[in-house]
């Protein structure tokens, strides 16, 4: 996917915003114990190659970035103008931040991304439970560690037993067993089975036993939140996020054994292609030094980040946190991911003091970040020094049009189509962080984090008013 510079995120009309909205389906409502609002991705056309590595074939393509709808970014302001702008924001935001619907604790940060100047802050360095806005940090850490074009491999290799092949999971959260990709290009067990059958038949093999290896991840697979329809077991081998229906996002019951289910689906796909699979798939290890018989690759990391942020996808978030751990020499566990994400953000020059990244998704109340850290990440993503972070911006939902903001700051709101932001909601916790172009053409990063709100609906309306005020204040 193209990596655009901040000044290339050019203003779009309402028509462009409407084109974005056509791709979205109605968002699911909020829920308790780690709320997130999610919508279904529009099913993309099946790409030639199905996400697999085909000799001489076309490689899987990155998911397209959301078209830019941000206004043209100004070149910054002089000190007098900046002071006036800061005074204007303070006058606009302070009364709104006092809204009791936002709860008993409210923090805020607004930064000019072109100059790094803080235009407004209130408790901006206080560590708060961020809910799903922590996905902004997860995305930046993963992109810094791996780059936007990185793709996660799922392979089939010879096993240690005679006549055995092993399905090896690499942690691809886009892996699917469906014959048509449910949410854009990604790793395909269908294409992998076709390639594996072709390789086996070329070697004169018509019957195999099947093992599977999900040992890449370590530690507990169950998120500390417990059994929850918002997230599957976090394993290195899961197809379709372990969903028990045909959905591509949103809450749904998950299978009890995602790795085993993926292997059983793969066995069935092999059988459809004329390869007999004897017995049930069992956990196994590849033969030492064995070369892959076939490989399928995930959506490029940039596409995974965009899908995660737009739909607030918890499964992708936890996978990206573990991929960051692996790239950083840490165990692929909750603990290893926590250390790796913090280290990668610090490596970007961000102050992570007082922060904690107990998970990658924000479902954990133990997560702690400040409003200032979130605007710092967004400013890094907007700046010229780290183009690899640009998907953090392009993946953010667009107010009034896409993802978790489709129904927020919509219609005649001054923020409609101009504001991109990540929502965050847990019971009593509400947050909003993103970017907006103000009337003078500056790209501003903002973050509002609140706690102990009496209700999600009132808190969300309060946050939307704050964001709209940032968009409307010159």
Give the overall pLDDT as a whole number: 85
Strand order of the largest sheet: 2-1-10-9-8
Task: State the helicity in percent bands.
Answer: 25-40%
**What proportion strand?**
5-15%
Q: What is the global morphology? A: elongated
Total E-strand runs:
10
How are the SSEs placed, and which strands pair?
Layout: H1 14-22, H2 79-97, E1 105-112, E2 118-122, H3 134-146, E3 153-158, E4 164-168, H4 189-202, E5 207-213, H5 258-272, E6 276-283, E7 294-297, H6 301-311, H7 314-327, H8 334-347, H9 371-382, H10 391-394, E8 419-426, E9 429-437, E10 443-451, H11 456-472
Parallel strand pairs: 4-5, 5-6
Antiparallel strand pairs: 1-2, 1-10, 3-4, 3-7, 8-9, 9-10
Helix pairs in contact: 2-11, 3-6, 3-7, 3-8, 3-9, 4-5, 6-7, 7-8
Q: What's a quick, concise take on this entry?
A:
By secondary structure, the protein is an alpha+beta fold. The protein has helices at 14-22, 79-97, 134-146, 189-202, 258-272, 301-311, 314-327, 334-347, 371-382, 391-394, 456-472; strands spanning 105-112, 118-122, 153-158, 164-168, 207-213, 276-283, 294-297, 419-426, 429-437, 443-451.
């Amino acid at each position: 996917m193209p990596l655009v510079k901040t000044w290339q995120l050019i203003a779009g009309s309402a028509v462009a915003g409407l084109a974005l909205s056509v791709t979205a389906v109605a968002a699911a409502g909020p829920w308790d114990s780690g709320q997130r609002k999610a919508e279904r991705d529009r099913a993309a056309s099946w790409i030639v190659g199905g996400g697999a590595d085909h000799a001489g074939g076309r490689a899987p393509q990155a998911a397209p970035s959301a078209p830019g709808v941000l206004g043209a970014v100004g070149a910054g302001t002089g000190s007098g103008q900046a002071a006036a702008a800061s005074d204007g924001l303070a006058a606009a935001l302070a009364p709104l931040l006092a809204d009791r619907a936002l709860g008993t604790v409210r923090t805020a940060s607004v930064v000019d991304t072109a100059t790094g100047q803080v235009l407004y802050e209130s408790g901006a360095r206080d560590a708060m439970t961020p809910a799903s806005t922590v996905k902004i940090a997860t995305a930046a850490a993963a992109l810094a560690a791996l780059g936007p074009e990185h793709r996660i491999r799922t392979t089939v290799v010879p096993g240690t037993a005679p006549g055995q092949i092993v399905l090896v999971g690499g942690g691809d959260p886009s892996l699917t067993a469906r014959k048509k990709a449910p949410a854009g290009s990604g790793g395909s067990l269908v294409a992998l089975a076709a390639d594996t059958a072709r390789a086996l038949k070329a070697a004169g093999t018509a019957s195999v036993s099947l093992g599977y290896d999900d040992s890449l991840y370590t530690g507990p697979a169950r998120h500390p939140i417990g059994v929850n329809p918002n997230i599957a077991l976090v394993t290195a081998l899961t197809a379709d996020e372990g969903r028990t229906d045909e959905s591509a996002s949103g809450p749904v019951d998950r299978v009890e054994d995602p790795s085993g289910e993926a292997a059983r689906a793969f066995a069935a796909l092999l059988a459809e292609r004329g390869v007999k699979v004897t017995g049930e798939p069992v956990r196994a290890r590849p033969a030492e030094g064995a070369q892959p018989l076939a490989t399928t690759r995930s959506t490029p990391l940039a596409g995974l980040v965009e899908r995660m942020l737009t739909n607030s996808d918890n499964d992708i978030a936890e996978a990206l946190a573990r991929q960051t751990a692996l790239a950083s020499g840490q165990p692929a566990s909750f603990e290893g991911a926590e250390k790796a994400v913090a280290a990668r953000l610090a490596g970007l020059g961000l102050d992570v003091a007082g922060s904690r990244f107990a998970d990658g998704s924000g479902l954990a109340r133990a997560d702690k970040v400040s409003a200032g850290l979130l605007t710092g990440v967004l400013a890094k993503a907007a700046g010229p020094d780290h183009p690899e972070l640009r998907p953090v911006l392009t993946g953010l939902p667009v107010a009034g049009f896409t993802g978790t903001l489709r129904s927020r700051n919509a219609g005649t709101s001054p923020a409609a189509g101009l504001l991109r932001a990540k929502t965050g909601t847990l019971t009593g916790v509400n947050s909003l962080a993103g970017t907006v172009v103000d009337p003078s053409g500056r790209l501003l990063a903002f973050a509002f984090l609140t706690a102990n709100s009496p209700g999600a609906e009132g808190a969300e309306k309060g946050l939307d008013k704050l964001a709209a005020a940032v968009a409307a204040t010159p």
